[in-house]
Specification:
The complex is a heterodimer of chains A (about 325) and B (about 375).
Chain A: E1 6-15, E2 18-28, E3 33-37, H1 44-51, E4 59-64, E5 67-68, H2 73-79, E6 80-83, H3 95-105, H4 110-124, H5 139-150, E7 157-161, H6 169-184, E8 188-193, H7 196-199, E9 204-209, E10 212-217, H8 219-224, E11 230-235, H9 238-245, E12 251-257, E13 260-265, H10 268-281, E14 286-291, H11 296-306
Parallel strand pairs in A: 3-8, 3-9, 6-7, 7-8
Antiparallel strand pairs in A: 1-2, 1-4, 4-5, 9-10, 11-13, 11-14, 12-13
Chain B: H1 3-18, H2 21-41, E1 49-55, H3 60-71, E2 75-80, H4 87-92, E3 98-102, H5 106-111, E4 119-122, H6 127-152, H7 173-204, H8 206-211, H9 217-245, H10 255-280, H11 283-300, H12 313-319, H13 324-337, H14 341-370
Helix pairs in contact in B: 1-9, 2-7, 2-9, 3-6, 7-9, 7-10, 7-11, 7-13, 9-10, 9-14, 10-11, 10-13, 10-14, 13-14
Classes of the chains: A alpha/beta (about 325), B mainly alpha (about 375).
Chain lengths: ~325, ~375
């Protein structure tokens, strides 16, 4: 078995009295798509900045691609690709100029530069736009170009900090196809997101809240670990239904989920029978009841509640 | 330091400069505009002094005296008055700077060998100009009386002074102003040019991307500096050429030495701009700090306007932080005196020290942010 691509032990970062990342430990094996899921302010970006050498940890240690974060920062930077939250290529350079610039910075050998450039252009679908100024491209294209420049030097580990924020759903799908392809060829991909549906693309997920990892597993396992069954009720007045069900017998947790109501219960069959009647007595019409597979969002909310905490933000 | 990365940064900076009209104007148009503007606007020569005359005598000698004033090239007779009472209003309005009263017995006194009196009334509100004007007036009158003396009694002057003025033979203030302006303008341009470049990277988020690559701080700082050094050298050459062709300032020194000194000066001043940029982090703030840090010290504390020797001690110490202070001595020396490193080596060394410290500080200011 080869060494893990990323190891982190008791990593902590404080800004004054605020602890952005609090005693975080995990390992990421090679070739894995490892996801960081959590609301804004949960500590995802701070963690990634520490792993990419942009920020010094206050405490704890870690390795990336086998190099120590504190002592071998230069080697770490050579072995990673990084794509930040905001688009950060040069808008006043053309596509080809941006690629050439980063190829030189990453030390891509001169002989391989043309080949790598063509590879990135093909990957991003920008062969016909190589001489256009980057600022004129659509956001989806910019995003793919940023990904391409981040892997110009074929780094073993790739860090993506909310790479798809603001991108339309179709571009987002294309983007994840590219990431899947990179991982299939052995690149370790470390990605943060606050889109729950994107988290499903990850092999493993770390759920982060208030600087701590509150769960870490495969998406399916996280969902299966939901302790109690989940019912979805369609009603004509969901906010009032939530209120009515809060203290009802057999109900563990209740919340709005879109226009429907999600209820965590002790016994699914008993609740299916009892809850519609209970609501009807209050004058709320129930149009349907179903046992549903919990989404990652349900899992996330349940875990935060179980930990007795509140969501960041 | 990796050469590939260094030149990649420099090349990128050139590409961005080429597409940024604002920077191009700042780099090439502004120095020329400033030189032409200030070169024509600033002059410490006192010429065409407006003279008001009250000639109560009207004799031949009085006319000869007035001719002496005209022939000096410094005075123009702006008005002739009948009464001394009219002098006041004229000086009040600034129509004349100096009024000359020639009394009725002027010709007669001269002919009789008595001392004739003339009265000069000067507008002293601008003390500097008044002193100079009065000096010229006394000179003219002195000459006139000496000549009169020789004509009437055949005497010989006991001592004759033969003066020769070196370096600026015509004593034209322009010859001193233009080389000084080159130094002051280059300080302003160099400080402003680079003050934008790092702040821009922070503002657009590209700094974060740079920081995640293996490129080092010194590579970024020096790589960014290279194109601006080339631009700065071109500006110095351009300004020198304009000084010679448009303002007819003599250029007696060695162009290569001037370029070498300019290089040291530019590295230091551009480094100062980079430092401002790294600290300010926003283009607007960086421009404002850049303006304040270059314009006023450039003009006031470099020795361009006021001699440093006569400044109070705290100000004099402050001038050592102004890179134009050293460069100004070099440009004046090279243009007018034609001197080289044998004379100007202290300034050269100080500029090199300034460059090393400036670059070091810029790289350090940068390090804190990236760590």
């Amino acid at each position: 078995m080869s060494a893990p691509a990323v190891t982190v032990e008791h990593l902590t970062r404080r800004f004054g009295t605020f602890t952005a990342v609090d005693d975080v430990s995990f390992q990421v094996p090679r070739g894995e798509i490892f996801g960081f899921l959590g609301p804004n302010g949960a500590g995802k970006t701070t963690t990634i900045k520490m792993l990419t050498g942009l920020l010094q940890p206050t405490a704890g240690r870690g390795t990336v691609a086998g190099y120590d974060l504190a002592r071998e920062t230069e080697s770490v930077k050579r072995s990673i690709g990084y794509m930040s939250q905001l688009f950060s290529l040069y808008g006043d350079l053309t596509v080809a100029e941006n690629i050439a610039f980063f190829a030189a910075l990453y030390g891509v050998p001169r002989a391989r530069r043309a080949e790598r450039r063509e590879w990135v252009l093909a990957m991003a679908g920008l062969q016909d736009h190589r001489d256009r100024l980057t600022q004129e491209l659509s956001l989806g294209w910019k995003q793919r170009l940023a990904l391409g420049t981040a892997v110009l030097h074929e780094p073993p580990v790739l860090f993506l900090d909310e790479p798809t924020s603001g991108v339309d759903p179709i571009s987002r799908r294309d983007f994840w196809d590219l990431i899947g392809g990179l991982a299939a060829r052995g690149t370790t991909v470390f990605v943060s997101t606050h889109y729950m549906e994107e988290a499903e693309y990850c092999h493993r997920l770390a759920l982060m809240n208030r600087g701590r990892i509150i769960a870490l597993d495969r998406p399916a396992a996280l969902r299966a670990a939901m302790p109690a069954p989940l019912l979805e009720l369609a009603t004509d007045d969901s906010p009032r239904a939530v209120e009515a069900l809060e203290d009802a017998p057999g109900v563990i947790d209740v919340g709005l989920f879109g226009r429907a109501v999600h209820v965590t219960v002790r016994d699914a069959d008993a609740a299916r029978a009892a809850l519609p009647a209970l609501l009807a007595a209050r004058g709320i019409v129930v149009r349907g009841v179903a046992v549903v597979e919990p989404s990652l969002e349900d899992v996330f909310v349940a875990l935060v509640h179980a930990a007795g905490g509140a969501l960041a933000d | 330091m990796d050469r590939v990365r260094l030149f990649a940064v420099a090349r990128k900076e050139v590409l961005q400069l080429r597409r940024d009209p604002r920077s191009l104007i700042l780099a090439f148009l502004l120095p020329v505009a400033l030189l032409v503007f200030f070169g024509y606007a600033i002059s410490w020569d006192v010429t065409d002094i407006r003279l008001a005359v009250v000639d109560q005598d009207g004799g031949v000698k009085a006319r000869e005296l007035l001719d002496g004033f005209r022939a000096s090239g410094r005075f123009v007779v702006a008005s002739r008055l009948e009464r001394t009472a009219d002098i006041g209003p004229l000086l009040d309005r600034g129509r004349a700077l100096i009024a000359l009263v020639i009394p009725p017995r002027f010709d007669a006194d001269l002919g009789a060998g008595r001392t004739a009196l003339v009265q000069a009334i000067v507008d002293g509100s601008d003390a500097n100009t008044a002193t100079i004007a009065l000096g010229y007036a006394q000179g003219v009158i002195q000459q006139f009386s000496t000549r009169t003396l020789f004509q009437t009694r055949r005497l010989r002057l006991p001592i004759a002074v033969q003066t020769r003025i070196w370096y600026n033979e015509e004593l034209a203030s322009r010859n001193m102003i233009v080389p000084g302006l080159v130094a002051v303008i280059m300080m302003i341009i160099a400080g402003l040019l680079t003050s934008l470049t790092i702040a821009r990277e922070w503002e657009r988020g590209t700094m974060e991307q740079l920081a995640a690559t293996p490129v080092t701080r010194l590579e970024v700082v020096i790589g960014k500096l290279l194109p601006y050094v080339v631009i700065g050298l071109a500006d110095v050459a351009l300004c020198s050429l304009l000084g010679v062709l448009v303002f007819h300032v003599p250029f007696r020194g060695n162009m290569f030495f001037l370029m070498g000194a300019s290089f040291a000066f530019l590295v230091g001043t551009l480094g100062l701009g980079l430092l401002i940029s790294a600290v300010a982090r926003s283009q607007l703030l960086a421009t404002q700090i850049g303006m304040i840090a270059t314009f006023l010290p450039g003009f006031l504390l470099s020795g361009f306007m006021f001699p440093i020797d006569t400044m109070p001690l705290p100000l004099r110490l402050l001038t050592y932080l102004v890179p134009a202070r050293y460069f100004l001595v070099v440009t004046r020396g090279v243009f007018l005196k034609g001197v080289g490193p044998d004379v100007l080596w202290p300034q050269g060394l100080l500029m090199i020290a300034y460059a090393v410290i400036g670059l070091g500080l810029a790289a350090r200011a940068f390090r804190k942010e990236l760590a």
